[in-house]
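This entry is listed below:
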Amino acid sequence: MKITKKQFLISSGLLLAGLFLGWLIFGNSSDHNSDEHLSPMEMDQHVQDTHTDESGETIWTCSMHPQIRESEPGNCPICGMELIPASSPGAEASEDDYSMVMTASAARLADIQTTPVIHEIPQKELSLPGRIQVDERRITRITTHFPGRIRDLKIDFTGAPIRKGEVMATIYSPELIAAQRELLEAAKQKERNPRLYELTRQKFRLWEFTDEQIQAIEERGTIQNELEILSPTNGFVLSRNIAEEQHVTEGTVIYEVANLDRIWVVMEAYEDDISWIRLGHAITFRTRNNPGQQFEATVNWIDPVVDPLKRTVGVRADLANPGNQLKPDMLVRGNLTTTMDTEKLMIPSSSILWTGPRSLVYIKDTSAEVPRYEVREVVLGVRAGDFYVIEEGVEEGEEVVFNGAFRIDSEMQLADRFSMMNREPGRGAIRLHDHGGVEMNDADMEEMDDQDRNEMDAQQEMDTHTIEGTTDNFREDFKALLTHYLDGKEALFNSDANAVSEAFQQAAEELELIGMHRMGGDAHVRWMGQYEAIEVHLNQILETENMERRHEGFALLSQVLIEAVNNYRIPGVVYHQYCPMVDASWLSSEEQIQNPYAPDTMPNCGEVIERIEQ
């Protein structure tokens, strides 16, 4: 059949209309599905911002590594992620050695979060471990003023309560008999020689006999072979240093009596918290036996010397103790809320990237159309809870990265830009990590002056010096303590709070079984200090559920145990490991690095400082 021109045009029009309708239904639907996660504004931006080269071809990049530029789609050569179209030049922010530009999707995937730098008065709540102590000013040492022999011991046990004027013991002394004879003779002639009479009475007063006792001697008129020693104060017997029929010399301390109507509460403030504490600050505390009752006191003394083992300073308050409710050596937990006098710039502690002498933060460029982050060196002030005071490096209102900063820094390092690991961009990325290990580069060594090297050498010599007098039984018991510590380290790495508590509670019980008085000589002296330090740091770990505070206690505990393992040559093999990113050490039973301080962000950061084998 012959087709007319009119029929041909109609057929062609219908065909073209069908093709156009099919494209609308299927082709456009496919494009829509590929971008269905985008809002209309994002879709427009996605279309407009696609970057092409001079020939009009699309350039592909990685959302996590914007420095990658490929002419065709595929996978990122660094991380293996699927490449996406690059943003157009007009939408990109400028990059340099101190900044990094990321796509919006990359920032979302890395969970980059920022917060403004604030300008407020820093406030901090300190939780301080401590114990009740006897007020040293209320201790009376009762001594003998002449040689003699103790006959009848009335107060015969430590801890006995005693009242002023109560008989503590009787004493026989030839000097005392002679003095009674002189007194009786002088009493007969006191009208004719009152000065001699007064001098003989004064001798008894200097020997701490009361006027009533002296008067009784005169009234009896006979010499007594034994006289009573009376208590000069109220209190409790802290120590009894005599027994019946024991001979004593002049100046012998026979009793120590403490008046407990007022006592001291002495807290241990960690070195980092010293600047927050002032005389006159109010402090509250609770005891273990009655945690529901709160006591209040005022700080009236701060130790001028830092304990070299505990790295703490004593903070003391005194208070009334009616009914002897608070007993010496009770453990307490104190709380002190303090503020600074002026406002300071502050940022979250999670924003800080520690690099030894330097600290870095990342600032978001709020003027850029796409996410751009700039690295800054900052001068840190004191810590205020979850914040740090910044003395220099940021301005109020700037947006600082508090989540994801480590990821940005990793990208900076890969791009050979200024970062934690790269002091001099452009020389090639500096790799300090080698299978989890860390080395000091030349710049680090140059910054260490002769004094630092000498101190480091002295510390290493002290840590590895074997203490004479260590016993094999002590070594075996300490090894059990060390086993619980290593279990605690594993629990910290696994972020298992219950296992952390269980391991370090067992370590505390093992420490109590070891006791303080296990050895003699130099070993005894060194262990006494280490014992107290270990006890304090274990208490810090056990008395808080805050993982950051537990890490602080674990770091201090590790320092003491590393020294002790070397001092006493504990049998077995352990590895002294160190991470410069957190500036902390630990002991491990395995050579493989498992960082207990940053298991989520830097699980393999660290190096083996020493393999300790005995």
In short: The mean pLDDT is 81. The longest helix spans residues 5-34. The first strand starts at residue 60 and ends at 61. The domain at 113-122+343-431 is CATH 2.40.420.20 (conserved putative lor/sdh protein from methanococcus maripaludis s2 fold).
